[in-house]
Amino acid sequence: MTDQVEYIQSPLCREYTDEGHKVEIDIYRTEDSGWVLEIVDEGNNSTVWEDKFETDQEALDEALDALKQEGIQAFVGSFE
Question: Does the predicted model carry a pTM greater than 0.90?
Fold first, then answer.
C-alpha cells in the first residue's frame, strides 16, 4: 500500500507575464513541510527552488524579486 502525499496549494499562486512570455508561480507544501516555490513556463519547463520557505508570502516575494532581477527569460526554456 502506498501513501499518497496531499499538497496544499497557496492562494498566492498566480500568472506572471512579461516580454511576451507567461509563467505560472506555483507555491505549495505538504502538511508537514515548508513552502515550495516553482515557476513553470508555457512549455511546462520548471524551475524549483531547493530551499523551502517559512511562509507562502516569502515564497511569492522571492519569485517576484527573481523575475524582476533576472528577467522572465531566465525562467523560460526551449520550446523545441
Answer: no
